[in-house]
Amino acid sequence: MLVGSGAAVAAEEASRPSSRESLRISMATKILDSEDDSGLEEQEVESVQGTPTRVLCEQVVPLLRYLDRKAGKELEEKNDALQGHLTLSRRLHKAVLQLRYDAAAEFQREFEKQRAKIEAELHSERIQNSTLAEELVQQTRLLEQCQIARMADEELLRRLHSQCDELRAQRADAELQLVEFEGDNRRNRRRVAKRLDSFLARSQDAIANLEAELTAVLRRLGLRNRAED
């Protein structure tokens, strides 16, 4: 923008004649006007022919015209140069703007690409965090259930230990009672054995008596041989 404005100002300054050239042109114009006036007043001109002023005017006017043409040519060349410079500046400015636009578009595309990538990563992280949160909830519930089950197992183990202790005590009592019972049983068995021995002895005596009586009867009946058979 600054280059374009500077070129425009330079072009305007170049299109304007300098103060020195304007002074020369105004002087030449005055001289030409004076020549026109002298043409109208031919008699006065003829009267002053050959004077130094006339000779000086005839020498200066062609010089001024030459300088005027040269200044115009230089102005045209400067104007052309400034126009070329202005055109080049405009092209450069346009190229710079195009480069800026391309760079901005490329930056915007890269920004959108990076933003899409970051959003995808954030979405993936959100899904992972949600999955991890669900797994954490499940693990927490399982841990609570395990703790409850462990407490129940510990309570059951304490009860079993208590029952085992009670059973051991009951077993010890039963063993003592068994020992006492076996002692009593031995005494009872001894008594029964004595009674059985006495009964058997009496029975054997009775059997012997019965056999003797039976033998006597058989003898009396004459069936001794059969009885022996």
User: What level of helicity do the residues show?
Assistant: over 70%
Total strands = 0
Distance between the termini: 163 Å
Shape: rod-shaped
Region (Disordered): 1-22
Keywords: Coiled coil
Coiled coil: 157-220
Biased composition (Low complexity): 1-12
Overview of this structure, please?
Keywords: Coiled coil. Helix content is 95%, strand content 0%. The protein has a domain at 2-130. It is mostly helical and 229 residues long. Helix 1 packs antiparallel against helix 4 and helix 2 (19-40) runs antiparallel to helix 4.
List the keywords.
229 residues; mainly alpha; 5 helices; 0% strand; coiled coil
How would you summarize what this structure contains?
With about 230 residues, the chain is mainly α.
Topology:
Layout: H1 2-15, H2 19-40, H3 42-48, H4 52-221, H5 224-228
Helix pairs in contact: 1-4, 2-4
